[in-house]
Every structure is written in C-alpha cells, then in structure tokens.
TrEMBL record, chain A:
Full protein name: 1,2-phenylacetyl-CoA epoxidase subunit PaaA
Family matches, as SUPFAM superfamilies: Ferritin-like (SSF47240)
Cross-referenced InterPro entries: Aromatic_CoA_ox/epox, Ferritin-like, Ferritin-like_SF, PaaA, PaaA_PaaC
NCBIfam families: PA_CoA_Oxy1
Amino acid sequence: MAAVTADQTTQGTAGTADEAEAGRLAAFDATVAADDRIEPRDWMPDAYRASLIRQMAQHAHSEIIGMQPEANWISRAPSLRRKAILMAKVQDEAGHGLYLYSAAETLGTSREELLDKLHAGRQRYSSIFNYPTLTWADVGAIGWLVDGAAITNQVPLCRCSYGPYARAMVRICKEESFHQRQGYELLLALSRGTPAQHEMAQDAVNRWWWPSLMMFGPPDDASAHSAQSMAWRIKRHSNDELRRRFVDICVPQAQALGLTLPDPDIRWNEELGQHDYGEIDWTEFQEVLKGNGPCNEQRLTQRRTAHENGAWVREAAAAYADKHAARAGTAGTAAQPVEATA
Amino acid sequence: MTAALALGDDALVLSHRLGEWAGHAPVLEEEVALANIALDLLGQARMLLSFVGDEDQLAYLREERSFRNVQLVEQPNGDFAHTMARQLYFSIYQHLLYEELATGEGEFADLAAKAVKEVAYHRDHAEQWVLRLGDGTTESHERMQLALDALWRYTGELFEPVEGVDVDPHALRDGWLAAVTSVADRATLALPSGPQSGAWAAGAGRQGLHTEPFGRMLAEMQHLHRSHPGASW
C-alpha cells in the first residue's frame, strides 16, 4: 500500500505548494523504495504516469496485433488438436489485451483513446509481430521463442511498482508459460517427424531467432527509457541482461529439440558463466520500428479495417443500450451488457 | 454413424467459419466470444467424429461430397450481422436438439448433456446480438434484416430427418420457429414470410450436396494436412 493518497494530499496543510509537492514525491519515492505498490488513487509523478501508459499501451497493442500472425494459421492447422490449441491461444491474447487496456485505464486514459493512437501509428507494438508466418512451424517458433522472450521480459513485471500492471502480469504470465510449452511441443513433434517437417521446423527457428532477440529492445547504452524505468521499479533488469538470460535458456532447449540456432558465434563462456552470442542487426531493428518491416503496413491495415468495419456494430450496441436505459429510466450507457468502445 | 457424422460435421464446419473471425472482430470482447464459441464447437466435433473413426482422417481426408453438415453452417461469414443470423438460426436449433437428446437414452445423451450447457451460451450470445443490431441504429437494423433474409433459405434443412437422430423433426421445427420468432419480434425485425413460403427451401448438405464456397473452405482447411501424407503433428 502506498503511504499517501491524492485525496489526503489535497487537504490543506501549513506548507507551501512546493513543500506539499516535495512531500508527495517523498512519499511516492518511499513507497517505491520499500517495494510497495503504487495504486490508481495514489499520487504519482506525471512522468511516471505517462511512462506507464506508454509501456502498458504498447504491451496491450502487442497482444492485439500479435493475434494476427498466429490467426493466419487457424484455418490451416494440420490437426484438430492443434487447431483447438491455436484458437485457444489467440483467444487468450485477446483476453490479455483486455486485461492490459483495463489496467492502463486506471491511469486515466481509455481503451478507445489508446486504440486510436495505435491506429494512427502514434503508439507502438512489439517489433516481432511485423514478421510473417510463412509455414505451420512458425506457429511453434512463435510459441517457443517469441512467447519465451515475452515471459523472460514479463516475469519481472509481476513485481513492478504499479499494482494494476503487476497483477495483470501475474495472470498473463501463467497463460503465456502454457503457450510457450505448447509451442515447444509443436516444434518437437515437427523436429522428430518426417524430414520435411524437420526442415520446416529448422527454417522457422532460423527466421524467428534474431527477431526474438530484438524483442528485448535496444542495447543498454541506447535504451532511452531504461534508467528511469529501473529507478521507478517498473523495470527490474536491463535489456541486455534479460536478452542474455534468454539466450542461456534457449541454447539447451534447442539442443533438446534437435534444432540449431542460426548464430555461429554462440558459445559457452566459462569465465563469465554465460553464453556469448553474435551481433544483432540493429539496422534491421530500427527499420522495423520505423514501419519498414515486412508486415508493418499489413498488420496496421488489418487492425484499422477490423475497427472501421466494426464501427456500425459498436454504434448499434451503444444505441441499444441507450434505448433500454431510457426505457428502464436509468441514465447513460452504464448498463449495457457488452462493453462497446464506440 | 450417419448421425454422428452429420452433427459432427455441423460443429466442425461452423467452428472453422467462426475461427476465420480471429483478428477481425468489431470489438475485443467479440474476439474472445467468437473464439470461445468456435472452440466449444470444435470440442463437440472432435467427440462426435471420434464416434465414427479417426477425427483427423475424417476432417482432413474426406472430399466435399462426403461431408454431411447442413448448408447453413458452411455459409461464408459475411458481415457481423450475417454471422449472428447464422448463429441465431443454428444455435437455437442445436440447443433444442441437444436438450432433447440429453433427456433420451441414445448414444448421444452424454455428449448432448455436456454440450447443451455450451450451446445455451451460444444461443444467448446470438440472441443478445440480434436484439442489439435489430433494435440498435437504422444501419444495424437494415443489415440484420438483410442477414436474416439471406440465410432463411438454409434453415429448412435443419428439420430434415437424420438417420439415428431420435428427435421428432416437426416438434423441433415448431419449437425453433417459436423461439426465432420471439427474438425477431423483440428485435423489431421481420422473419421472411414463414415455413410455407418458397424461401423455406431445404438444402441437401446431409446428402453431401453443398454450396460453392464450401469446396474452397475445405481446400484451405485440408491443404497442409494433405501435403504431408501420413505425418503426425
């Protein structure tokens, strides 16, 4: 629990405005330093609020855009069991998006506002989802590598200083771990299957390995938000630290899968007790972030189109709710049974 | 086994169509809801097809003329109103059918008892949306009416007798018509002029005669499986 709430601090005290501000900041800093949680009604610095909105929105958008590369294979899943697993996973991602938008809304923004920013290209989503799913094995590679990288990034967020975000991450990480195991198992079945299936699995790992490493963000010396996020305990570990941890996890898993990682420079460093690995193509990373990746345009267009095509449905839901609220003598759309973003 | 194949194919094909909505739904809640319904139906399909043989062989290696689903479920998604009209017609049919099967002692009693709970949700979801769209805006009202009209001709087939399904088709039809009429009334919509009209045309999906979009749907669904004969996934 935070030491001081916004309500308490607005009560008249003897000090000047500056002193009051300093007091609120001190209380905030003490809460963070004590590893307690900041809650929605607590006072927080504007920059902390803005930084969280930026990060949580990007996280929510990633869940929503991330449905596309996998949904691309729902209609072609090669067995009914795999089809059920994939549909359940894509459904979970929509659910994660909902948790995260709700959590972001506790900071005074709205889902509609955030989606508008996504559609206008003013907020980002994870660079990884700008890569295409070209074969069925890509679904497994996404589960193993992309979800694996996401979990490595997100488990520390379960202890992040902002309560609603931390609680959302606890729920999300449980489901993500499940997806990651299923992706690994999918790749294992392919790797141990026919030669054509094995080749399909290796090809997918070759294409998804480097983009997965890029999910951890720019190197520490080029990361704009890292230092402040770590000071605020939104973030617990640096990009490079998490990236290396991920490589250390993946190397033995690739061996168990019977697949290779497409990096001749990966080797165990006895002295440091960790793996060395090759140089990431940061030019490619920057290009993808700038909108020049293979699927940036396609992903955003599909999202915008779904939203625009759905406008009349959301308007209908809102109109219906208003009519029935009016008939029931209650005000507004609060009673509508399904939340519409219209 | 005609019955298990007929009911299994209904669930399999409708599940596939709903799966096509993933990433395209009008609101995030519907991404969750449509996937949820698709998953329930896929679960039913897998159980029903397993009564007949290997689920994957049946799903992926039969050709169009061997599928026994009604034509209603294979209809393309269209706009959200078309999808909801299809859901309304089918889920009320399936709910009444499974309620009946669940009380009997036939081979589907256990499956129907489990599935009827899921289908009650699907029915509620479809009814709620038909109400919202019918009684929402002018545009949504028009779209919902068009959708009910367009799919009406595929509803007659739901009440053709199926070998091995021990339910009186006439009673099923009466119950279905009453339920659909009630929803349409409350939604300020009109049903096409009724079972005696020419619109009440029975299709022949149960005999393996399908509509043109179905072949393309199967081509997509089966392509990968057929490209790797004998492989496991």
